[in-house]
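Entry 14. Ran structure prediction on the chain below.
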Amino acid sequence: MSEQIATVLEAFPVSPMEVMSVSRDLDGSLGTNREWNVPRQIGANTDVAAVLAWLANFTHKQTTFDAYRKEAERLLFWCVLERGKPLSSLAHEDWLAYQTFLGNPIPRDMWVSAQNRRHSRNDPRWRPFAGPLSVSSQRQAGIILASMFSWLVSAGYLAGNPLSLSRQRGRARAPRIERYLDDELWLEVKATIDAMPRETPRERERYLRLRWLLTLFYVCGLRISEIAENNMGNFFCRRDRDGAERWWLEILGKGSKVRLVPATHELMIELGRYRRELNYPALPVSGESTPLLLPIGGKPKAMSRGGIHDIVKSVFAMTSERIKLKGPEFAHVAHRISQASAHWLRHTAGSHMANNSVDLRHVRDNLGHASISTTSGYLHAPDDNRHNDTQDKHRANW
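Output, structure tokens:
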């Protein structure tokens, strides 16, 4: 192993790419795909500096920045550690090999964190991967990196985009969203929360926080990042045409798009219960900086996406264990709920709205979808009706 690669490996456990230190033959200043014949639009002369210039376009949105940095960082390390070349020498064949690597990052002890756990970037146990990427995650990585290479070409840093040679296949949209909780499982999750102890102030706060969080996910269909990054000052009240007061929640969501989500009477009741438990007035005021979800103890500090994820996963784990006690015939149900994540609650909200006859246009706007075709994936009832109709009326009659 070269001295340069050993230098990177030494820093690998903490590995912000900003500290990546390699010699000129690996830093990209002599990359075979560098563009030398046109004026550069950026001052960068190394791969890390060029990637950081690209990432600077996304610093206004933390979730986007983190996702893009993660994919760029993984590829930078792979190029140096596995291929022994800089990012700016990446060829089409390298990209094909990297796609295979994403589905099975080996050696695992170097690339994958122990027990597939996620750790903070300053933790010695940090690794670029928490496990092999799913097909959808591999596709997303390709989209992000293709965008990065295209930008580097436009900036005059690279001569060409090696990812553009890959065969482009139209993504076949899944006919139905499958990662959601049906009515039965949603009732089981609520039963888990209802069974929580609430004798002490801390227990009561935990119970009411979970009720508020699950109601927020379910009624509004929010993404986990939207709960982490918005605050209670985004609630506002206005009168409708008939003079009735209606509450709304303004959400800054994916792609920095703003949407208004109906804050139903039920949602505002849960918010009031949660706020009163924390000694806040029942209703928020415009401009209030209180995060939508607070740590236990009520400190006015926003929770991270990881913290909210862990809370939701703990509820699903408790639900799974409780269902297992019903008997072995419920093992498949317990397994399904154990696989659920916070994003399943967004899908659950969309599915339940769509299948309870909420206008699809309203579901689309509540969830912030760009197209109603995306929202249509939540419609499960028509499939069930079609199955029943076919079963009742279309028989081989042996």
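Residues 3-165 form one domain. Will compare against last week's run tomorrow.
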